[in-house]
């Protein structure tokens, strides 16, 4: 089964980055007990003050899709939406490296 | 000390993505013994067949800079360069989340 990854770029409305960051950190904390969520890191952009990036890795595309359907996720999205000016995402397939476990032993 | 992160987008010359991926996976394997390298994941782009993304997290900006000066890194870059059509990077500051350890306990 292939892992599924995403770089999600959130542009906050002016002055709302830290409030949005707090919601995303809550979602990350909730994901601690979700085995299928392997990585959920909140990052500040280095050069764009209103931008947050979330680095996500899930055990499969289906696990990610299932997470979006959870009540807790939908509630978090509902709270975050008023703070967000825009979202873009880059979908990726992790194939190996340091920091995660890959079934091919890499 | 703040972590330092980067999304590095490598566009391979046509047909060279897998050869480039192999070099990057070797670099990731070499990083297994480098404590300051917390994440070094090679990813295939979902929609662009010549594109690889590398997700990197280092314990500090200085640790990342030091890694670039190592003979092994320079040798890998030398082997990779002929395979690469372009590189872009997005520098980020990881602030919390699941999958890494943050000194603020998040």
Structural description of this entry:
The structure is a homodimer of 106-residue chains. By secondary structure, the first copy, chain A, is of the alpha+beta class. Chain A has one domain (4-92): Alpha-Beta Plaits (2-Layer Sandwich). In chain A, 30% of the residues lie in helices and 39% in strands. Chain A has three helices and four strands; from the N terminus they run E-H-E-E-H-H-E. In chain A, strands 2-3-1-4 form a four-stranded antiparallel β-sheet. In chain A, a hairpin with a 5-residue loop joins strand 2 and strand 3. The longest helix of chain A has 14 residues, at 17-30. Chain A is globular and about 45 Å long. The mean pLDDT of chain A is 95. Chains A and B meet through helix 1, strand 2, strand 3 and strand 4 of A and helix 1, strand 2, strand 3 and strand 4 of B. Strand 2 of chain A pairs antiparallel with strand 4 (84-98) of chain B, so a sheet runs across the interface.
Number of helices of chain A: 3
Unreliable parts of chain A: none
Assess the beta-strand content of chain A as a share of residues.
Answer: 35-45%
Globular, elongated, flat, extended or rod-shaped: what is the shape of chain A?
globular
| Cα-based radius of gyration of chain A, to the nearest Å | 14 Å
Whole-number average pLDDT of chain A? Answer: 95
> Helix/strand/pairing class of chain A, anyone?
alpha+beta
Q: How many distinct domains of chain A?
A: 1
- Helicity range of chain A: 25-40%
* Gap from first CA to last CA of chain A: 15 Å
Strand order of the largest sheet of chain A: 2-3-1-4
The biggest beta sheet of chain A reads: 4 strands, antiparallel
Largest interface in this structure: A-B, 36 and 36 residues
Strand elements of chain A, count: 4
CATH class of chain A: Alpha Beta
């Amino acid at each position: 089964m292939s892992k599924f990854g995403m770089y999600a770029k959130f542009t906050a409305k002016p002055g709302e980055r830290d409030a949005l960051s707090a919601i995303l950190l809550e979602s990350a904390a909730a994901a601690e007990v979700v085995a299928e969520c392997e990585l959920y890191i909140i990052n500040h952009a280095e050069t764009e003050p209103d931008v947050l990036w979330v680095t996500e890795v899930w055990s499969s595309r289906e696990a990610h899709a299932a997470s979006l359907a959870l009540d807790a996720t939908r509630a978090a999205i509902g709270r975050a939406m008023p703070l967000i000016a825009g979202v873009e995402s880059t979908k990726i397939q992790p194939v190996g490296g340091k920091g995660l476990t890959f079934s091919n032993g890499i």
